[in-house]
Structures are given as structure tokens and as C-alpha cells.
TrEMBL record:
Catalytic reactions on record: di-trans,octa-cis-undecaprenyl diphosphate + H2O = di-trans,octa-cis-undecaprenyl phosphate + phosphate + H(+)
Name the UniProt record assigns to this protein: Undecaprenyl-diphosphatase
Membrane spanning stretches: 21-39, 46-64, 84-104, 111-129, 149-175, 187-205, 217-238, 250-267
Gene designation: uppP
Source organism per UniProt: Propylenella binzhouense
UniProt GO cellular component terms: plasma membrane
Amino acid sequence: MDTLKLLEAIFLGFLEGLTEFIPVSSTGHLLLATHFLGFRTAGRSFEVLIQLGAILAILSVYFAKLWRVALALPDDPVARRFVLSILVAFLPAAFVGVLAHGFIKNVLFETPLLICITLIVGGVLLALLDRLDTAPVHRDAMLYPPGLAFRIGLFQTLAMIPGVSRSGATIAGALLMGCDKRSAAEFSFFLAMPTMAGAFAYDLYKNRDVISLDDAGVIALGFLAAFLAALVVVRSLLDFVSRHGFAPFAVWRIVVGTLGLLALWLYG
């Protein structure tokens, strides 16, 4: 197996884990990185399948809380409402993702110029949202009502466009609907679990005939790197957002998008 490709897989896995749960678009970062590195796997399966590492990272951090919810489901209406809220928030992205899977993978994933533009535009919008001075109505992500969760889920569908950011879209929707920054970020964690697991399972099914043994090894390395990086991010993000808000991520998006445009202009 090519040593350089293995090193690239580790780097890309680390990049996935670092960016998956912050509002900067992990998919956008991965697609730009793979474009300039010339890194390819059959069916672009690597970029989706290594997300399993990030999913397991968030499950490991929230396992105790989720286990308590599972045990309380038969008797606790609050636990049932939380699960319902996550499910209804997940449905719009599931519907759009299945319906537009081919267009997303074959057209949007292959358009680095679009990714750079959405990174920049999303950064500007995130900076503006971060400056909103409104009194939050919702402060506990586990108490978001199903109607609110569904509307946040509609925002998540925007993340089908690479560069928009799944977490960024859900956080933006939550902020616009009266949620505070910390709970908005935490709800994006909870919503990530079914969304990313569904994307992983569906992409694995669609690419089951084209994934080679060589790709499996590369994906495994990317998965491990993504797990370790995401573990650090999930453990520290909520405190970071509480102190600094989302402005640093807005700047990050604008810088990466601008550098991407410059690189495309110079190198194609």
C-alpha cells in the first residue's frame, strides 16, 4: 500500500474529526484537501465513511446521558419528547439526502469553486448571527420541542451543499429561532448522530460494489484519526463557544474559502 496515501488518509481523517462538529464544513474541507492532494477513493466513499469515527467519538462522550434517556423512555415524557425531537429534526435531511444523493456526490462534491464560495458566504452569515443581541428562549438542548427541532432540521438540509456545514446550518437555524449558543451547539451534536449514521450506512450501501481492500485500509486509518480528533473537539467545544461564540469559526471559514479560491486560480 502506498505510504504517501496512508499519510494523506491520516491527515484527512484528522481534518474530518477536527472540523465535523464545528461550523466550518468538514465535507468542504475534505473535498478541497482531496482535490489539491489528488486523493481519490472509489465512489468518494472515504469522505463519508470516515465520519463513523466522529460518530463514535460523540457517542463515547455522551454515552452516559444517552443511556439515561434510553432507560427513562418507558416512563418519562421528557425523555420521549427528546427522542421525538431528534427524529423529526433528522427526517428532512434523510429525505433530501436519499432523493438527491447522485447529484450531491457526482456534481456538488466535484465543484471546488462552489465549496470555496459557500465557505466564504457562510462565514459572513455566521459572523452576523454571532452578533445578534437577542434574549434566548431555549437554553437546554434536551428540552427543544419537536416543532422547533423540525424547523432546525429544515435548516440542516442546506448542508447538502458542501461548504455550508451541517453543524453550521443547524446552529444558525437554532440561533434564529431563539436558542442560546451553547444549547444550539449541543443540539447539533445530538442531531449529528442519526444524520451521520444514516449518511454512513446509505453511502456504504451505494458503494458496496466499488470499495476495494486497499480503500478499506485507507478508510480504517482515516476513521481512527477522525475518532481521536473528534474526541478532543467534542469534549471542549461547548465551553469554547460559551466563552468566544462563533466568530472565530466565521473567520476560519472566510480564510479557508479565500485561500481555496486563490489556490484554484493559481493551480486549477
